Amino acid sequence: LNAAGFTDYYDIDDLLTEEHKLIRQSIRDFVKKEISPNIEKWAQQAHFPSEIVRKFGDVGAFGPTIPTEYGGGGLDYISYGLIMQEIERGDSGMRSTASVQGSLVMFPIYQYGSEEQRRKYLPKLASGEWLGCFGLTEPDHGSNPGGMVTTIKDMGDYYLLNGAKLWISNSPESQVAVVWAKDDNGRIRGVIVEKGMEGFTAPEIHNKWSLRASITGELVFDNVKVPKENLLPNVEGLKGPLGCLDSARYGIAWGAIGVAIDCYESALKYSLEREQFGKPIASFQLQQKKLAEMITEITKAQLMVWRLGMLKNAGKATSAQISMAKRNSVDMALHVAREARQIHGGMGITGEYPIMRHMMNLESVITYEGTHDIHLLITGADITGIQAFK
Ligand code: FAD
């Protein structure tokens, strides 16, 4: 731990500004007060704490990089990353709520929306008065979203929306859904669908073993009349949803490091306290190997996302670079969680420690926002010029 109490083996804090550190501390304090004391209970009971939405709004967790005139934080990408890291250190499901709202709902409305849409939706989403969701994945189209079959048909005065989306974070509790569908010419367009529109339902998906404190559902559209002014005017094609995913994946690359740090700190503490054969288990070489490898991998990932953040601040980060960091951080965190689970012995499977919850959460994080395999193939395509996944 550094002087400020953060796991920081290479003094990466030296690369942060005072503002970055203050933001990180304020989110750390928020998570300690509002999330950590309750998260085991929420996860065990598969309860989504809807009151957290307003609280996230108050603390500035929604749309930190969106300009302040629309209610956002007007912050840089390092700040955004640190916010995601601290929230996910609390729980990946809670970070999912914030990621979806900021990167997948506010970002497309800000980036692709009309001025009226920005003014109508962004302040309410930033404050947490409204919750939003992002509908891209369909029952038969996950890794291949371009194959989607949800359609908007131009009816002159309005669009008629038909189809279904699956695995949608926040959906049952959302007032607003950014939905991707094909128009009459087969082009992918974004539309803003509001709760209460006739023919629109968002049933919950039950029995998840992962992200249990995050609510997940479907989006079902049965001849939903969507007003013309709800079409996102400034983007068409797959680059629309993929642009949003770049932003969310960047946040996950930071967030997963928060999980890894939480598991590592818990394992280090436990190994120093737990005695077997008359001495702390931390004194055995096999346990030291696990801990040493954990901190090495965490440090490598911290440096990677910091550099990625600087590239993003300069507008130079590529989608492939973001894919590499998302894949690396999540895989690293899952490995750290599994090793930490073993260090905790039998205690590691209980809710007394955060490890098993983190580990199960990461099984979703390694699949959503592009699977582990797909991100590897994106790197492969980037370095060889040959796409292997089509
Ligand atoms: P598939 O695409 O069917 O993949 C199955 C397996 O095949 C994977 O291992 C994959 O890597 C592999 N595979 C697929 N194609 C290839 C290929 N070409 N080459 C090699 N291997 C391949 N979606 C949203 O739109 N909005 C959300 O808010 C959202 N939230 C989610 C929340 C949770 C808890 C979960 C679990 C998912 C969420 N998703 C969301 C969906 C998520 O993005 C998809 O699950 C993901 O894209 C994978 O799609 P799939 O599940 O259909 O798997």
From TrEMBL:
The keyword Lyase does not apply. Pathway: Amino-acid metabolism; lysine degradation; Amino-acid metabolism; tryptophan metabolism. Residues 237-381 form the Acyl-CoA dehydrogenase/oxidase C-terminal domain. Pfam families: Acyl-CoA_dh_1, Acyl-CoA_dh_M, Acyl-CoA_dh_N. One of its GO terms (biological process) is fatty-acyl-CoA biosynthetic process. InterPro entries: Acyl-CoA_DH_CS (IPR006089), Acyl-CoA_Oxase/DH_mid-dom (IPR006091), Acyl-CoA_Oxase/DH_mid-dom_sf (IPR046373), AcylCo_DH-like_C (IPR036250), AcylCo_DH/oxidase_C (IPR009075), AcylCoA_DH/ox_N (IPR013786), AcylCoA_DH/ox_N_sf (IPR037069), AcylCoA_DH/oxidase_NM_dom_sf (IPR009100). Belongs to the acyl-CoA dehydrogenase family. This is glutaryl-CoA dehydrogenase (ETF). The lineage of its organism: Bacteria, Pseudomonadati, Bacteroidota, Cytophagia, Cytophagales.
